[in-house]
Every structure is written in structure tokens, then in C-alpha cells.
Amino acid sequence: MSSRHTSAIAGSLLTASFSAVMIFACAATAGDQGAMSGKGGKVVDEPPAGVKLTTLLPEKISVDNSSHKTAITAVVKNGGTKDSGKIRLLVAGFDGLAVTNVKGCSEMAKEDLPPGSNSAFSCAIDNLAAGASKTYAVDATFDTGKAGKICLPVQTSDGKKTYWQQGPVPFGATKPTPNAPTTPLLLGTDNKPVGPGGDQLPKTGVGDEVLPLGAAGATLIAAGAAGLWATRRRPHQQH
Questions:
Q1: Among residues 72, 78, 19, 29, which one has the least CA distance to residue 185?
Q2: pLDDT digits (tens, 9 = 90+) for 70-108
Q3: What DSSP element (H or E) covers 215?
Q4: Rounded mean pLDDT, 153-163
Q5: What pLDDT, on the 0 to 100 scale, is given for residue 107?
Q6: Across the chain, how many H-helices and E-strands are there?
Q7: How does DSSP classify residue 214?
């Protein structure tokens, strides 16, 4: 075998190896961006025996710096061995994050919003079978000049009990990119906006702390709000 032919084969193998590494690296990056997490979630009221309700949010979202629009995927799942029966998922926005639509859900009236929340949608679920999950497409806006949080409580259909609550958990960036087309935000990260002069604005609201929610009376503590929202209150009648 000639040295020229040997060199050509070696070069081809090197190119193939490099391409394979690049493909694997890209696949890993894409997978990281699509990861989902229950970060900031906690059991509030004990669910019925055999029912295990949780929620998931993306580890990373991207905000358009021109329109301030972003898309968030919210997932509710039953990891138990028995059906859930009638439940509802709430999707609420706080501070710089405002929920504008949740496909298949109803917007909550202003008077029913938790103090400090600027928007919320209620998603009625007739039943979530054991091992099943349901995915919701959430449209939102995010003012990257502020902190922003989202909350996903899973309740009985009448709102008297909250089986699970994720949040209010922040999305944020420690190094904003105001001049870029988009700003990537990470779940569980306090947003640290940069003002016109380049100085960091003070953080607003709470971070990823566990809220003092008890089985005797689940309350949603809104970031920066003076009041409390009792989840056992009589829910707004929906028709």
C-alpha cells in the first residue's frame, strides 16, 4: 500500500471521527436545552392514596429581546398507581413574567389572582390516569429588566386542596445580553438585570426558597406582595 493511499485513508478516518464528535456534541447541547425539571416543587396537601402529582418546567427558556415574548412548556404528571380524579392546574406569572395564554385553559379573573401575581390560567383536568402526563403550551412575556417567576399549583377541582406546587420559581440570567436577539433564562436563577449605565439593578422578590405551605392551609406567597393567597378560598365559578 502506498504512503499516499495510507495518508488518504488516515485523513478520511480523522474527518469521520471529528464529524462524529461534532454530531454527539450538538445532540448533547440540544438535549440539555430540552431538559425539564421539578425544581422548586413541593407537596402541600397529601393526595389520595396511590396518587402522586408533580409538575415540570423547562430548565432553559429564551426571550425575544424585541417582542419580549417567550414560550414555556408546562407538564403535570401522575406518577402514582391510581387515577387522580378531577383536578386542575394553575399557571401563574409574577413580576416580570406575565402569562398571556395557556392553550386549552381559562384565564382567571383579575379579582381571583393571588396578590402579586399579574396573570394566571386555570386548566381543568377530568382525570389523569396512573403513569400519565399532560403537556400545556404556555405563551408569556418576560421583561428582562425585572425579575420574573412562575408558579404551578396542582389542586382539587374546587381549589380546596393543593396537592403539589412548583414555585413561585424564578427564571433568570446572571449575565443579561440586552443587545443580542434573544436572552436565555435558566430555571431557578434570579434575574440580575443590567441598567442603561451598566449597573446591576437590585434583585426583586424571593428566589428559589421553599415556601411555608402547610396542609392546614396552603398559601401562595407572591414575590414582593404584602398579602397571602389562600388556596382553600372559594374558587371563582367557571362556566
A1: 72
A2: 999 999 999 999 999 999 999 999 999 999 999 999 999
A3: none
A4: 95
A5: 97
A6: 1, 15
A7: B
User: Rounded distance, CA 63 to CA 141, Å?
Assistant: 8
Burial of 78 (0-12, 13-18, 19+ CB in 10 A): buried
pTM of the model: 0.70
**pLDDT at position 202:** 39
CA distance 93 to 100: 9
Q: How far apart are CA 62 and CA 75, in angstroms?
A: 18
Mean pLDDT to the nearest integer, 18-25? 36
Q: Is the dihedral of CA 153, 155, 210, 37 positive or negative?
A: negative
User: pLDDT value at position 198?
Assistant: 39
Residue 99: closest CA among 152, 52, 139:
139
d(CA 104, CA 25) in angstroms, rounded, equals 36
Determine the pLDDT at residue 192: 84
> Could you tell me how many residues make up the chain?
239
pLDDT of 10 reads: 45
If pLDDT is split at 50, 70 and 90, which confidence band does 124 have?
very high
Please give the backbone phi and psi of residue 44, each rounded to the nearest 5 degrees, phi first: -110, -75
DSSP secondary structure code for residue 110 in this structure: G
Cβ burial 201-237 (10 Å sphere, 16+ → b, else e): eeebbbbeeebebeeeebbbbbbebeeebebbeebee
Could you please report the per-residue DSSP string of 153-187? Answer: EEEETTSS-EEEEEEEEEEE-SS--TTSSEEEEEE
